[in-house]
Design a protein that fits this description.
InterPro entries: OTT_1508_deam-like (IPR027796). The protein is an alpha/beta fold. The chain has helices spanning 2-15, 31-43, 73-91, 97-100, 104-116, 118-134, 139-148, 160-174, 182-205, 211-215, 234-241, 245-256, 259-269, 286-296, 313-324, 350-384, 399-406; strands at 23-24, 50-56, 61-67, 217-221, 226-231, 278-283, 303-304, 306-307, 329-330, 333-334. It is built from 17 helices and 10 strands. The chain has a 4-stranded mixed beta sheet with strand order 4-3-2-8.
Length: 407
């Protein structure tokens, strides 16, 4: 059944990459939830996805972090610096945020984080830059250009760290404006998320009531789990749903005639959709790595797992199943995409594992069946007649002097 699961995940991903519209879950988050979310943002570098779970105990805080790649020496060094900054800030609290911007530990926090996250900030800036260049005469773009003081002709020269600070503030003004395109707002939010997260982390760390959170933090870095998994061919899986050879051939031609599906088939199967000896390199997603520990410990208390990127559809299905079994898991939402390199958690409870596999397989079967029915019905018709910004306005007061100094 396991090989069937991974094989059908590949097929479903090839013909239905996104199941539905993305969802977000920012409501009713506690202060520790928001800290987890902000830490996940500044711990994710480049294309990596990082998950964070903070378990608050009476005398200490246990921090569990995982990511979808190996931990490198530079990661360890960076995490240690951030941890030391937060510990020092919590042990020497101040009452006013404006006092924090003059502190060396706060400046170190900002410079280290913005440097570590620079590649991801660059990629997010490129998407925002496309919006600005393409629609520079639209009123909402002109408004942002004016506030950010952007020279569109020399946009590549913009200071991205200062732009993140500007986007953070600007997003708060436009997030509820229904006249502004959601795509543009999303790009503004993502570029601003770094400064937004750092401001929120700073506000929390310098607050005396949160001393226990950072001054006595036990860190647990979970090792990534990556394996090579044999899968059945695309043809074999599709023929489970279309057993007639002639009908299968027609459906295959329909798929190959659609550019997006053909590209995904080439990407997933390397142009060998009828070959049986295929392996996929699959990995346990960061949030499920943390969830595996929770399930193995049978911890059914409320758990918020922050993720630097919203959960994929298969992670959402697994978490949904865990909730059915009594686990109180909260995540930031789902982008509803099916990732073919996804791995099922190896929990110690065999019954839980097998039942979760059946739960996900049932959904994958339904997706494949529905997509096949949709395309074949289209053919028949044609024949019969184609994380995170919660900073307050006054949080920005006096921060510009620090930005001028360090960026």
């Amino acid at each position: 059944m396991e090989k069937e699961l991974y094989s059908k995940a590949c097929v479903a991903s090839s013909i239905k990459f996104a199941v539905s519209e993305a969802t977000e879950n920012d409501a009713n988050l506690t202060e520790s939830d928001r800290i987890s979310r902000n830490l996940a943002t500044i711990l994710a570098r480049d294309k990596e996805v990082v998950a964070v779970y903070l378990k608050i105990l009476p005398e200490k805080c246990k921090a569990y972090i995982s990511k979808n790649d190996v931990w490198r020496e530079e990661d360890d060094e960076y995490i240690s610096k951030i941890q030391n900054c937060l510990k020092n800030m919590s042990e020497n609290p101040v009452k006013k945020l404006e006092e924090a911007w003059k502190r060396e530990d706060v400046r170190t926090l900002f410079t280290e984080a913005m440097t570590y996250c620079s590649a991801k900030l660059d990629s997010r800036f490129k998407k925002l830059k496309q919006d600005i260049i393409k629609d520079k005469h639209d009123s909402h773009i002109k408004s942002f250009i004016e506030q950010a003081k952007i020279d569109v002709e020399n946009i590549n020269e913009v200071n991205k760290q200062k732009l993140s600070r500007c986007c953070c503030e600007y997003y708060k003004k436009i997030k509820n404006d229904i006249t502004i395109p959601e795509k543009f707002k999303r790009h503004i939010r993502k570029v601003g998320s770094y400064v937004g997260s750092l401001i929120d982390i700073t506000k929390c760390a310098i607050n005396a009531k949160n001393k226990i959170l950072f001054s006595n933090m036990e860190l647990y870095k979970l090792n990534p789990i990556i394996i090579n998994q044999p899968i059945f061919s695309w043809k074999r899986i599709i023929q489970e749903f279309i057993p007639d050879p002639d009908d299968y051939k027609v459906y295959e031609e329909i798929c190959l005639d659609k550019d997006l599906i053909k590209k995904r088939l080439d990407f997933i199967y390397d142009g060998r959709s009828d070959i049986e000896d295929i392996e996929q390199r699959i990995y346990l997603h960061a949030e499920l790595n943390i969830l595996t520990n929770i399930i193995n410990q049978e911890d059914k208390s409320r758990v918020f797992i922050a993720v630097s990127k919203r959960c994929c559809y298969l992670c959402e299905l697994y978490i949904e199943f865990a909730k059915l079994k009594g686990y109180n898991i909260v995540t930031p939402g789902s982008h509803k995409k099916i990732y073919h390199k996804w791995k099922l958690p190896d929990v110690t409870n065999v019954d839980f594992r097998n039942e979760s596999m059946s739960h996900i397989l049932a959904s994958l079967n339904q997706i494949i069946e529905n997509e096949i029915a949709q395309y074949t019905s289209e053919l028949a018709r044609s024949d019969s007649d184609g994380h995170s910004i919660n900073s307050d306005d006054n949080d920005f007061q006096n921060i510009d002097d620090m930005f001028d100094d360090i960026f």
